[in-house]
Structures are given as structure tokens and as C-alpha cells.
Specification:
This protein is of the alpha+beta class. Strand 3 and strand 4 form a beta hairpin.
């Protein structure tokens, strides 16, 4: 399924390159825009969150460094005071590389740290 921004771009290109002025360049631009949107979809994801990685988190034991090595830097890092921090990771629902608009659920992992150690976490799939 083509999103709104893609429709606007395609309509502009169709108007610009129709009739006698239509060229191979117009066709190349249309195809490039369509294919690049599929490739960019996965890039927008901030982390790779898997059930296997999440199951490795242990309350009271896993450190901030362990979390960074598993998931990378968080999407949002909130300093809450008195050595408490909340890190948020988000992974966009992945879209298969096809023209069919089917998405996997988006994932969110929120981790609460105290003095650099995981105290609690919440993992949700939307």
C-alpha cells in the first residue's frame, strides 16, 4: 500500500512527466521512489527487540552496559533523579519487502534502572 507522501510524489511526477514530455527519467524516478520507501521502512526502527533478548534481562542483576550491548542506545533516556533512570526502546513493526501492506506488530521495551542495575522492565507488542 502506498502512503500519503508517496501518493503526492507520484501524482506530481505523473503531472510533470505526462504526454510528450514523458521520458525514461520520469519512469526511473517513479520506480526509485516506490522501491526506496520499502528500504527506508526498516531503517526507521530504533532497536532490534526479540523475545530471546528480552528473556535475558534479569531484575537486580543486568547492568546498563549489558542492556546497551543487547539493544544499543535507547530511543529515549529519562533521568528521574536519585540514581533512577528509565530507558525506552521502540522497534517499528517490520514490513516485508513486497507490495502487500502487511506489518508485524511494533514492540516497546521500557527498562527502569536504579544505580545502573535493572530494577524492572515492561515489554509490550502493539
Amino acid at each position: 500500500m502506498i502512503n500519503c507522501k508517496q501518493k503526492v510524489a507520484l501524482n506530481w511526477l505523473k503531472k510533470r512527466f505526462t504526454g510528450d514530455r514523458f521520458s525514461k527519467l520520469g519512469l526511473i524516478l517513479i520506480i526509485s521512489l516506490s522501491l526506496s520507501s520499502c528500504a527506508l521502512y526498516k531503517v526507521l526502527s530504533s532497536a532490534t527487540i526479540t523475545d530471546g533478548k528480552v528473556s535475558q534481562i534479569e531484575r537486580g542483576y543486568t547492568s546498563e552496559d549489558d542492556i546497551v550491548s543487547m539493544f544499543g542506545q535507547p530511543y529515549i533516556k529519562t533521568i528521574m533523579g536519585n540514581d533512577w533512570q528509565r530507558w525506552t526502546y521502540r522497534a517499528a513493526g517490520e514490513k516485508p519487502y513486497s507490495w502487500v501492506d502487511v506489518r508485524m506488530p511494533a514492540k516497546t521495551l521500557v527498562i527502569l534502572f536504579h544505580e545502573g542495575v535493572v530494577r524492572d522492565y515492561r515489554y509490550t507488542t502493539h
